[in-house]
Amino acid sequence: VTTAISTSAEAVVACWKVLDELIARQLPLAASSLQYKQGANEPVNLTTELGKVKTKLEQGQLKTPFDLHAEVVGVWRQCLDKAPQTLLYSLACMLAQIFDELY
Q1: Closest by CA position to 68, among listed 15, 25, 22, 20
Q2: Whole-angstrom Cα distance, residue 21 to residue 25?
Q3: Cα dist. 101→43, 58, 74, 98 in Å?
Q4: Among the residues of 6-86, which ranges form H helices?
Q5: Of 35, 64, 71, 78, which cross-links 53 as Cys (Cβ 3.0–4.6 Å)?
Q6: What's the rounded Cα separation, in Å, for the pair 5 and 23?
Q7: Degrees (nearest 5) of the Cα angle 95, 100, 103?
Q8: How far, CA to CA in Å, does 10 sit from each of 30, 47, 49, 68, 84?
Q9: Do residues 101 and 95 make contact, with C-beta atoms less than 8 angstroms apart?
């Protein structure tokens, strides 16, 4: 049963839960399924970048779910721009799909 979110505070809590699920559970699972290991030379560190988004959310810099969505999509775009046709890009695509389902 899905319940409606009626206040902006509830929306922020829901966004935090989605982002936390993505970072804490889905990122490690997806990386494992692709046998992806973060290298020192990777152009984008997904854990770091998603952590920055989470910090912005916690500090109140992201006011709406749309702000959160835009920030997370920006992380996926970094992977597309900086690491096309790599495992990092594949991981970002997988996580983007999971994020959209959770969001």
Answers
A1: 15
A2: 5
A3: 26, 22, 17, 5
A4: 8-21, 27-33, 46-58, 65-82
A5: 71
A6: 23
A7: 120
A8: 28, 25, 24, 14, 36
A9: no
Q: Cα(first)–Cα(last) distance of the chain, in Å?
A: 16
**In angstroms, rounded to a whole number, what is the distance separating the alpha carbons of residues 70 and 59?**
17
Q: In sequence order, which residues have a C-beta less than 8 Å from that of residue 80 and are 6 or more positions away?
A: 89, 92
Question: pLDDT tens digits for 36-79?
Answer: 988 878 889 999 999 999 999 989 899 888 999 999 999 999 99
* C-alpha–C-alpha distance, residues 9 and 86, integer Å: 38
CA–centroid distance for 44 within its chain: 13
Amino acid at the residue 76: W
Asked if 92 contacts 34 with a C-beta cutoff of 8 angstroms, the reply is: no
